[in-house]
Amino acid sequence: MSLARGKSPHPLQIAIACGGTGGHLFPGLAIADLLESWGHRAILILSEKAIDRQAADRVPHECMAFRSLGWQAGQRIRFLLLFPLILMKCMVWMLRRKPDAILAMGGFTSLAPCLAACLLRKPVFFHESNAIPGRAIRYLSKISRMGFVGFESALQALGPGSFMVSGTPVRRELRSLDRSECCQQLGLDASKPIILITGGSQGAMGVNQQVVQALPEISQRLPEAQFIHLCGMHEDIEKLRFAYTQAGFKALVFPFLEQMELALGAATVAVGRSGASFIAEIVALGLPTLLIPFPHSADAHQQANAQTMAQSGAALTFEEAFMTPTLLTDALCQLASDQQLRHAMAQRLKHFDTPESAACILEHILHRLGQKPGDSPRQTKSGLANSLNMDPSSQFHSLQPEVSPS
Questions:
Q1: Is residue 398 part of a domain?
Q2: Average pLDDT for the chain
């Protein structure tokens, strides 16, 4: 039974800790947008990173930035010294701003605000997008009132508690894209294959280098292809543009693209890391994709994400260590030229889609906070959870041996 979507007569303020990476930020923004459309108020808690500063300038929500440190080798002493100060600042802010609850979207950016909320007896909720929960979420799961996960396999690492599979929220505009219009705005030909290469908000140097080496062979086998290449700030953009020109391709090469929805909407196929937010976006669009997990992701969570998608036939995947320009060329040409394969992968992607993910999360949070816009919160079984029961013997498996999640 679905909750009514009318505005609540008693609006709440919910802080959403979603800073640090695009993988935390974009799902958090999707929830914030929906929350405010329901008549409540979202306050985004961000880090001081460049991606968060840029987001704060663009979004219509109130934003608050706190310093963030990860529990990483080489800076653990610094973490222990600075964390109490960050925690104190979070507590002072919460006493002044008085949010009714906090929702953590993962990462160490969310740790201090959520611990501050717990100490002030404010409800803590979390969402974990990845197949393997991060360290911060594993800790927060012990103090949270309720948690939500994108992959059913994440439940195994959380222990006892009130958790449910919700899928991962995506921006609403991704569900109403017109490919021809996206291509027109980017100046690309919709009748020809368009390959999107992206390494996420931080870029991917290994992927960039492999693509450049593969371009001469791709030009022989797929000369009509067009490229959108989001390479990250660390790459020499002019050298990449020159490589595409030398290979005879029309290519748009940017460090990043603020209107990422245009690139996703225009693409025929994509190549990218296997962060959970990117996976949720390709799922929402039914976009056939070659996933290349970041080899140094915490707890190998990107490998686990990619393995889940590949085993169901919803994506192809390579481990970066085994990837070669020839294998990359084979995969891209296969995806771009085989319409039947793309259709089959798009159908498999639908099994992972959870279009009501943000609504599901918010309905349960509001219910826990005593808000009842309708009869009762909807008890939905996620399409993502259903998809994990699919036969893994699909003909569309990874082009490499299975990626180990450990």
A1: no
A2: 84
